[in-house]
Predict the 3D structure of the following.
Amino acid sequence: MSTRWLILLLPPVFMVVAAAVLAYVFQELDDDNVDRIAAERLTLYQQTIIGEYQKYRYLPYMIARDPRATAAIGLGQPVESANRFLEEMAENSGADLLYVMNAAGTTLAASNWQKPLSLVGRNYGFRPYFTAAMRGEEGQFFAIGLTTGRPGLFLARPTPVEGDPVGVAVVKVDTSQLENAWAEGGELVFATDADGVIFLSSQPEWRYRTLAELPAATRDAIASSQKYANEPLTPISDAPVTGPNQLTIDGQAYRHNSTDVDLLGWKLHFLVPQAEAHKSLLPIWVITLTLCLLYAVIVLGLRGQRLRRASAALRQESADLKELNQRLVGEIKERRRVEHALLEAQRGLARSNRLAAVGEMSAAVVHELSQPLAALRMFVAGTRKFLEKGDTHTAAENLQEIESLQMRMASLTQELKRFARPGESRIETVDLRDSILAAEKIVRPRFEETGVALIIEMPDLPLIVETAPLRIEQILVNLLRNGADAAAAEDNGEVRLDIVETGDTVVVRVLDNGPGIPMNLRERIFDPFFSTKTSAEGMGLGLAISMRIAEDLGGDLAVSANVPRGAAFELTVPAVKSAETMDTPVVRLEAEVAE
């Protein structure tokens, strides 16, 4: 199949390759033709500019020699006869402006002396054409007139023409006629100065823009001479040059040719749009596309005949499919029967899971209530003895403890209900030390019973945390009781509780010196119904419940080895940030029970 398609694709590929070769050849021919025409046009425009320059070049020399124009310089003030003479000379020669300046650069006589924008009295000593003439040279300068606002070519000569200059004669040539002629010819032509600034253009919007970004030094030099007034001189395009004859302006590509004018470093540029320069390429690709489409129509027609023959074979196969469909209908009915049986089995499994959950919760209730019940029995037994001795005060205190335990058991059952629905416990800002002391009071009878020492170290200042106090007490009771059970078999059994504050969290560590937890059992220690104790001593729910509570409260519970012996449990709870630090005295609570 793939080989046949490759063979079918060979003719259009060949036609495209041939078209590409022809397009390349014709493109080269088009470029050569455009470059030849551009060279001819550039030569013509170059001669036009040179002719305009030569036409007026003599004029400042003549004025510099004529005393009628330079009389104002000798008198040091404007003279009406000099103004009228310059006005008459400008009308006869066709020059835009004629004026005479003294050695300080101040205009003393001008051909436009009677107009609102008269140059008389204005100083142009900063212009390069003036400084060149004062050195005895011929001044040549293109700029925007500061008074008239019109661009032009300024030509200057010193006066007298021999000896030390005492003034300068200037003629301004209007170049707008050149631009008008270029625009009327419908061609894209512009001229740039030695700095690459476009000052003449058949496209007015290109005027006073640059071929490239100007260096800072060049911009400063142009600004000091006020050559282009306040024009921003922005680049005409930010697109990179793709070739020696390529130029992109405002997103359009042009065929670009240029030549030197041999005047002030000027260059003439001639542009032809690429689409127009390569107009012979369009017919080549149109013909190629037409041939490819014709070839595709022929191939598709032949393929249509094959498909019609194939459809006849498919009709024959459809009869066989009908028989197969009938068999599938029977199989679908059997499948639905099996799915119905599976659904019933799933429902039975769901009922079994609910019963297992009820059993687990019941075991959890028994496990969590057994600890306060044990404490309750101890307080009841103690109360009876104190009543027999007549110590009613101590008996009353025990009754208060019994009442407190009763209230705790009621709250505990409510919390166990919440254990099945995480996140319902109310989070409060509490002092963690209160929860530690409450848990210590509950487990104290167990430590007295086992003879294990309980040492509690905590800061003297409050440990403010955000948590549910009763659920934290549940975790602490479980950890302390487990520690007492683990250390009970030791000669000097000891359980230590200390606190580490780490900024955003508070870590409560419960360490015992019991046999510890083997490495291979630490990952299972928090699983429900898993316990390292004998079946008579524990049900394996305490640590599972504690882990669940710690995670619900945004904390964590972890186990590691105690050094040199025993186990270490770390309860992490979120802390409330405060300015207090842990560099405070530590309260040490120690209870020793005689064996």
Observations:
- The longest strand covers residues 151-159.
